[in-house]
């Protein structure tokens, strides 16, 4: 069983920055893709960014140029640096870690005030 612990998030003014991290532990044989998703009130969960084990990244168009995803394969941790935040970035952010199944974090709230 894989446990994911997210940290970071909070309240920030528009234009500000926040960082998220998600550490995986437990019965981990191999971690493949790691990623971040978000869900705003009344909306479906959407992809924010993913990163493969080899470091290839993929971003939603809405965050390109503002968010950066990275990972530490030794620490089994994925990070999301969010800059130039906008009110529309307000959501609960979830990390996702692919082992033999997809594992989800508990979610962390990010609120951007205008």
Describe the structure.
- There is one protein chain.
- With 114 residues, this protein is mostly beta strands.
- It is 0% helix and 56% strand.
- The strands form 2 sheets. Strands 2, 4, 5, 6, 9, 10 and 11 form a 7-stranded mixed sheet that branches. It has a 4-stranded antiparallel sheet with strand order 1-3-8-7, with no helix packed on it.
- The N and C termini lie far apart (40 Å).
Tag the structure with descriptive keywords.
single chain; 114 residues; mainly beta; four-stranded antiparallel beta sheet
Number of strands: 11
How much strand content do the residues show?
over 45%
Gyration radius, rounded: 13 Å
Structural classification: mainly beta
Major beta sheet summary = 7 strands, mixed
Report the mean per-residue pLDDT as an integer: 96
| Tally of helical segments | 0
Runs in which pLDDT lies below 50 for 5 or more consecutive residues are none
Q: Order of SSEs, N→C? A: EEEEEEEEEEE
Distance between the termini: 40 Å
Helix content: under 10%
Shape: globular
